[in-house]
């Protein structure tokens, strides 16, 4: 019998460094008009995954309208 232990693959792969993510409309990455950011943490480890824009109502409406057009 082989007594070697196989490495266990983690359930979730964490980024090597926190990500800075922007709003997405289709394939376009849109920088928010606001400099404010929201931190996003892993529910598994509590580790900082990255930040997302704290978008205002107009930016959210633009993203929702774009999504509605392709739905």
Overall pLDDT confidence: 87
Q: What letter string, H or E per element, gives the SSE order? A: EEEEEH
List the strand order in the largest sheet: 1-5-4
Structural class: alpha+beta
Percentage of β-strand residues:
25-35%
- Unreliable residue stretches: none
Number of strands: 5
**Terminal-residue CA separation:** 55 Å
Radius of gyration from the CA trace? 18 Å
Largest beta-sheet details: 3 strands, mixed
Helical residue percent band? 10-25%
- Gross morphology is elongated
Number of helices: 1
Write the layout of secondary structure elements.
Layout: E1 19-20, E2 23-25, E3 28-30, E4 37-41, E5 48-53, H1 57-70
What would you note in describing this structure?
This protein is of the alpha+beta class and about 70 residues long. About 20% of the residues lie in helices and about 25% in strands. The termini are far apart.
């Amino acid at each position: 019998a082989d007594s070697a232990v196989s490495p266990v693959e983690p359930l979730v792969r964490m980024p090597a460094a926190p990500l800075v993510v922007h709003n997405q409309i289709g394939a376009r990455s849109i920088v928010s008009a606001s400099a404010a950011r929201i931190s996003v943490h892993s529910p598994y480890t509590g580790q900082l995954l990255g930040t997302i824009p704290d978008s205002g109502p107009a930016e959210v409406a633009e993203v929702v309208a774009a999504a509605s057009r392709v739905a």
